[in-house]
Amino acid sequence: MKFSEIKSSLKNKTVGIAGCGGLGSNCAVSLARVGIGKLVIADFDVIEESNLNRQYFFFDQIGKYKAPTLKENLLRINPAVSVEDYVIKLTPKDIVELYKDCDVIVEAFDKAEMKEMIVETVLSEFPQKQIVCGVGLAGWGGNNLLRTEQYRNLFIVGDRSNETSEDNPPLAPRVGAVSNMMANVVLEILLGKDK
Amino acid sequence: MKITLNNNIEVIETSEDRLTINQLLQIKKYSFKNLVVKINGELVKRDSYDQAKFKEGDKVDVIHMISGG
After folding, report:
1. CB atoms B45 and A120 under 8 Å
2. Domain boundaries, chain A
3. Per the CB < 8 Å rule, is B67 touching A136?
């Protein structure tokens, strides 16, 4: 498929991204670069200096809300993308409301209980929708431990075991790898398998 | 009881014909706090772990959610 054909089939697609941290910001940037039609992004948090080791923000954006700032950055990369941004701590009700028209949903939360909540919400409220979820990305190295597993309409991407903690922080290379693997799964869902 | 657990064939040591998700978590000593559970592709919500049952030949997924994003 030529890039022009890829862009024209992605133009009509909407991807919902829940969380604009390490997974969400990097995944959104990749999807914007390839010409996704619309992104619905949500995050309640503001950018801190400690986020810049992996999240797609800049030093002069510290203190701003992540969702609208990510929108700014995405539009600087590709002004053709339509971005809906929400500063909100998502509840199951919000997820249904904000993501009901999305073709695919990307789970990009930090906390395990939020990951469980969104997967449970999407699988029970939208049994036909595909959800891509990041699980296990802390530390560095171990490229070949990163993998994608499919459970019908649920895709789990990551090493499945490295939880973030004080001694096992998330870092740009591995978080970037997982978030781009997630974006890659989104393309497979939207365009069909290529490889 | 032979089932497919997390995409691998596994034999669960039990004399029961049917097991609940909570029984499986005990037998496997899974102590993860945050889980997504499916039986034959259907989501089992957390409040049904004591009722939802599976049997020989079923496909069970117990997906451990861990923090990081």
Report:
1. yes
2. 3-191
3. no
Calculate mean pLDDT across residues A96-113.
98
Give all domains of chain B, ordered by start, each with its CATH number. 2-64 (3.10.20.30)
Choosing among 3.40.190.10, 3.40.50.720, 6.10.140.1580, 3.40.1190.20, the CATH entry for A3-191 is 3.40.50.720
What is the rounded (10 degree) CA torsion for B25, B21, A113, A123?
150
What average pLDDT does this structure show over A28-34?
Answer: 98
Instruction: Report CB contact under 8 Å: A136, B34.
Output: no
Q: What is the pLDDT of residues A33-50, one digit of tens each?
A: 999 999 999 999 999 999
Say whether A108 and B69 touch across the interface (CB within 8 A). Answer: yes
B67 contacts chain A (CB < 8 A): yes
A118-144 in b/e burial notation, b at 16+ Cβ within 10 A? bbbbbbeebeebbbbbbbbbbbeeeee
Q: How many percent of chain B have pLDDT more than 70?
A: 100
* Chain B environment of A163 (Cβ under 8 Å): 66-68
